[in-house]
Design brief:
Helix content: 10-25%
Number of helices: 4
Number of strands: 6
Strand order of the largest sheet: 1-5-3-4
Length: about 120
């Protein structure tokens, strides 16, 4: 399995990855895309128990296994170690691309960014 063949989604948009992007000074360009989770059932989707790029990450394709994720870490506001940070960002990995029809909501910090997104094809 090559994780680069997948589109990466996060359960909680407020995570260590977003924090890094904000520190890089690009928070005005960030768009958070909310999807209806039910639209991914019966799709070619896998889940990880932490950041998919980390060593010893577990992958599964049965939604029943989502109960095994550490939801306290996923929705925590802070982390104190690299291990906690990795547990905060388990991923939903969708093979190839995601149809714009699955988008539920777009969240942006400003109107300019939202308009840039809306001006792209199919959005």
């Amino acid at each position: 399995m090559k994780i680069n063949n997948y589109t990466h989604l996060y359960f909680n948009p407020r995570n260590a990855m977003l924090f890094k992007k904000e520190k890089d000074g690009i928070q005005n360009d960030i768009v958070i895309i909310a999807f209806d989770k039910k639209k991914f059932y019966n799709e070619n989707v896998i889940f990880s128990n932490k950041n998919a790029a980390c060593q010893n990450t577990l992958f599964f394709d049965d939604v029943e296994n989502l109960s095994k994720l550490d939801w306290n870490y996923i929705f925590s506001k802070y982390w104190h170690s690299k291990s906690e940070q990795q547990k905060m960002i388990p991923e939903v990995l969708v093979l190839k691309h995601i149809s714009y029809l699955k988008i539920k909501k777009l969240l942006c910090l400003n109107e300019k960014t939202l308009n840039n997104v809306k001006n792209h094809e199919h959005v």
